[in-house]
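Form 7-S
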Amino acid sequence: MRPPAPLLERLSRSRMLPASAQPSVGMGERLSRQKGAGMEFLDFRPYQAGDDTRNLDPYLYARTGEFVVREYARSQQLPVTIALDLSASMASGDNGKFERAKLISQLFGFIALASGDRVQLAVTADHKTLLSPRWHGAARADYMFDWIDKRTAGEEGGFIDMLRALPQHLPPRGLVIAVSDWWDDDVGPALNMLRARDQEVVAIQVLGPNEIDPSSMDQGIVTLEDVETGQEIELSIDAQLLDQYRSLFAARQDELHGLFTAKHWHFLTVSTQDDLDQLFTHTLRAKGVLS
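Output:
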């Protein structure tokens, strides 16, 4: 599976617009807060033994008799980590939820690579956090597409557990794109741990149409199975139960939005029927996630 070439072409000039994440790794195209070799002048400071004498300012020396070094901003890469949910709920139903989540992950990764940032993927495998290689440059996009395409849903270990463990693997002040259905409980503590590591999170919630609005579901006696635990429950689906679901779903959405907006992070719900072109070329730009 590879994203459509016309959409990739349209996104090749897009760019992540983090609110707090900072370029901090490698040599890239974003001005960082770190000082070093670069083109953007920042400040002067007194010469110290070991400084590169090529950065001495001869004009200030001529005027003051003091050795002064010119400092420049370093151009670095923004570390982007895409956390993809592989839990069983992502593969539940016949709505293509996991395939859509993989495509969204590929598109975010491509945008980061094409704009000169560094990208890695994070998933859960056998209750452990599995990190992909780190990629840089649009020429590595096919390697990233292939790595994501090989992932399968139904892995053991929860998505939220992975988010809790993730900060120890990341450089500070990075950007995390978290793609999941966000059905897990105890989201708050995991987000707090990412915030404590100075990570910025953009959450993409991928849901099937019936998860957002179950109006089209057949009514009557049905047996439902929790794909995470295997537990079965028999329910009588009627108009009253559907109204109760809508109320609980709205409350859950309000809770999730509150957790993210309190940290000035983005949370966006996407249906598997939503058009990806519209999502990436209009919606995410309107929300300030992408340029």
